[in-house]
Design a protein that fits this description.
By secondary structure, the chain is mainly alpha-helical. The protein has 16 helices and three strands. A hairpin with a 4-residue loop joins strand 1 and strand 2.
Length: 361
């Protein structure tokens, strides 16, 4: 049976709505905490929710029960009312999945992880699901919803360290020169790619930019990063020129002028073909188009430009602390991985170039 595009989209929406309708109130409360208090992106909160729904599905199978949302709402409401009362166990809750979750011990968690391991998930995926449970139970314990935190006795599986991928300067040049800048959308694409490489910002930060975030005089960009933390990053001359050219074309085109009217409180810097804010997915699609056009590796992503930005800075003598601030990393250990990458590149260059670096025959 064939479906039209609109029918396929409607089916996908129905599936998403059905999934959300079966989400336990305690999981919904945790997702709200992530977005409202921790300022996680909706996408990240959705991923945490998906991991927790898998945990709930496991509990359903283990206890041979189905989700009764009325019972779960009642149990969660009662547990919330008990949260300020010391020494009140979740065992007092009515029989429900919420009761199982709030009173979970380490053996139940290990059973779930064993269930996941049987499905041959990678160590990275297992680590992510463990991180979700760890965050959830830490939140639950702090709110007085769970009896304890069973994740304190769970170790994250060891993962092989994967160095971030970076492309060469020549490849960067080929990619950035791919979009033609004779019209609004072509100039927009070039400005987006130039901005990504010039600043090392995340694609989510790129699409969140507003017109007023560009400081032409100071040659800088105001960026809202994770947790809504703002930072100011410098813009290189190529990016400044590309942004200036793009904005000039947009202002002259009546199809997009409305998106930049002065009355609007937040005018999106990068617009889509309808004049609205461009999405991260659209940026990825545009990048894929130009990668094919110039014959570069199709696995290159917007994040690859971020890695390349950091790697090229360190290759040319930038200090780690400065790169950390430019990337918006809270911890220097996150940025430290790039030093391993530059060390490997230095070693490769040494072995290729030094006359006595090769092994003796």
């Amino acid at each position: 049976m064939q479906f039209t595009l609109s029918q396929t989209s409607a089916l996908a929406d129905a599936e998403r709505n059905a999934a959300m309708s079966k989400t336990l109130p305690i999981v919904q409360a945790f997702q709200s905490y992530l977005t409202d208090e921790r300022h996680f992106s909706p996408y990240t909160a959705k991923c945490y929710g998906a991991d927790l729904r898998q945990f709930v599905e496991f509990l359903c199978d283990e206890t041979n029960r189905t989700i009764d949302l009325d019972a779960e709402r009642s149990a969660y409401s009662k547990r919330e009312s008990q949260s300020g009362q010391p020494n009140v166990s979740a065992s007092s809750l009515p029989d429900s999945l919420t009761k199982l979750i709030c009173s979970a011990d380490v053996e139940l968690i290990r059973s779930f992880l064993s269930h996941l391991a049987d499905q041959n998930y990678s160590s990275a995926t297992m680590a992510r699901k463990i991180a979700t449970l760890r965050s959830f139970y830490k939140w639950g314990e702090r709110r007085g919803l769970t009896d304890s935190n069973p994740m304190t006795l769970i170790r994250t599986p060891r993962q092989s360290k994967r160095l971030p991928k970076a492309i060469t300067l020549d490849q960067v040049e080929r990619l950035l020169s791919a979009p033609t800048d004779h019209d609004v959308l072509g100039s927009r694409d070039r400005a987006m790619l130039e901005t990504l490489y010039s600043t090392g910002i995340r694609v989510s930060e790129l699409v969140d930019l507003n017109c007023e975030d560009v400081d032409d005089t100071g040659e800088a960009l105001r960026v809202r990063g994770k947790g809504k933390k703002e930072r100011v990053v410098p813009l290189g001359s190529h990016a400044l020129h590309a942004l200036s050219h793009y904005r000039t074309l947009v202002r002259k085109d009546p199809r997009y002028a409305e998106a930049w009217t002065a009355e609007k409180s937040s005018r999106p810097l990068f617009v889509n073909k309808h004049g609205g804010r461009i999405s991260s997915r659209s940026v990825r699609r545009k990048l894929d188009k130009y990668l094919r056009q110039v014959g570069l590796d199709p696995s290159i992503s917007p994040h690859t430009l971020r890695h390349s930005f950091a790697t090229h800075l360190l290759d040319n003598g930038a200090d780690l602390r400065s790169v950390q601030e430019l990337l918006g990393h809270q911890s220097a250990s996150t940025t430290q991985v790039y030093t391993h990458l530059t060390s490997e590149r230095m070693r490769e260059s040494y072995e290729k170039s030094h006359p006595r670096a090769a092994e003796a025959g």
